[in-house]
Amino acid sequence: MNKPQSWEARADEFSMYGFTDLPSVKARGTVVVTHGEGPYVHDVNGKRYLDANSGLWNMIAGFDHAGLAQAAKAQYDRFPGYHAFFGRMSDQTVMLSEKLIEVSPFDRGKVFYTNSGSEANDTMVKMLWFLHGSEGNPKRRKILTRLNAYHGVTAVSASMTGKPYNEVFGLPMEGFIHLTCPHHWRFGQDGESEEQFTQRLAAELEETILREGADTIAGFFAEPVMGAGGVIPPSKGYFQAVQSILKKHGIPLISDEVICGFGRTGNTWGCETYGFVPDAIISSKNLTAGLFPMGAVILGPDLADRLQAAAEKIEEFPHGFTASGHPVGCAIALKAIDVVMNEGLAENVRRLAPRMEAGLRAIMERSEHIGELRGIGFMWALEAVKDKATKTPFDANLSVSERIANSCTDLGLICRPLGQSIVLCPPFILTEEQMDEMFDKLERALTKVFAEVA
Ligand SMILES: *Cc1c(COP(=O)(O)O)cnc(C)c1O
């Protein structure tokens, strides 16, 4: 085999990119990353970047946390792998489930493990189909989500995702219904207050339920703050309005906390931040602080009891992944929860979130082309607009957000373009000094790109 010389060319030749802008890679080459410390990563050329996206939202304790690596090593030495089928499971799995229920908003419940967030959502849908069928409601199969939601990439979770790019796969599948995105700044009508907007969305939900028939709907899934949709916090009162309608029609509310979970919004769960208790929680990404591929479905008491009854009826729940509840993943997750809650990480997010908001707001106010700052805790987005007053976006062909992200990369700052927005979701360990570095590099990139395109 003839290997090309550079790391970049070798990556290009043999690796298939996912969710990657191919013209950008062609023009700029791949960044091949070797290691990191704290919130920084290094590439093969010795360049250092402040990763203001925590990898992919998940490296919340940074890239070299000794305690997490130690927990992984210790478990690999003790018992390096096992499954959770046939009435067997590792001691680490038992302990993690206990811990997850303890830190959940539920006073009791049950946990089921997957290898990713997509699989956790997929599993939750199968659980709902299974229990509704078992309870004599086999028609209760439709899934409600929102436009711009991101729930993953498996055929089911991609169908739940409310993004146009899934059309290339012929998705969504039938029976996946996408409601309006609760983003008042962008989707509110002229003169419509945020409260009125929320009421309109609640009415839309109720009309949809009545039109489709409540007895055909399996569940409603929502991220407390939409992440990959561009960091979109819900409009005022949204979850209270939605939950009362869902309750009336007996439709479970599932909180997809893959991003919000474990402190990203300033509380352990996003549902806490927005004052609601869901019927189940989907967790992944932060669950192992990015050190192990793992997802979890955390069922509250009602769904746990009903699913248990359905399983007992046929003597099993016929579902599971080979690596579900992997002991190394569970050991890491146990340590990660401890690190976030007891080593000051969650506390750091709460302490520095107002500083992050203030710094980004100042950047917005100095810029003629940032139309909105939105977010909470340690997840924020700045949306670029051609015209602030009319919220008119830049021409999509200008790829403004990609250019900003590329300029940041040149300056040694990793951030992510999402639509016309730039997303910043740093690791929970970020210091004030590192935050200032992020502000400084971001503003230099914005100034440069806006001068080019405006
Ligand atoms: C990332 C994400 C998922 C999918 O998780 P994967 O581990 O990539 O499959 C699901 N839901 C939300 C909210 C996410 O951010």
Automatic annotation (TrEMBL):
Q: Does the keyword Transferase apply?
A: yes
Which cofactors, if any, are listed as required? pyridoxal 5'-phosphate
GO biological processes = biotin biosynthetic process; gamma-aminobutyric acid metabolic process
InterPro entries according to UniProt: Aminotrans_3, Aminotrans_3_PPA_site, PyrdxlP-dep_Trfase, PyrdxlP-dep_Trfase_major, PyrdxlP-dep_Trfase_small
Keyword Cell division recorded: no
Q: Which GO terms describe its molecular function?
A: adenosylmethionine-8-amino-7-oxononanoate transaminase activity; pyridoxal phosphate binding
Per UniProt, the keywords (alphabetical) are:
Aminotransferase, Pyridoxal phosphate, Transferase
Belongs to which family? Belongs to the class-III pyridoxal-phosphate-dependent aminotransferase family.
Q: What is this protein called?
A: Aminotransferase class III-fold pyridoxal phosphate-dependent enzyme
Q: What is the lineage of its organism?
A: Bacteria, Pseudomonadati, Pseudomonadota, Alphaproteobacteria, Rhodobacterales
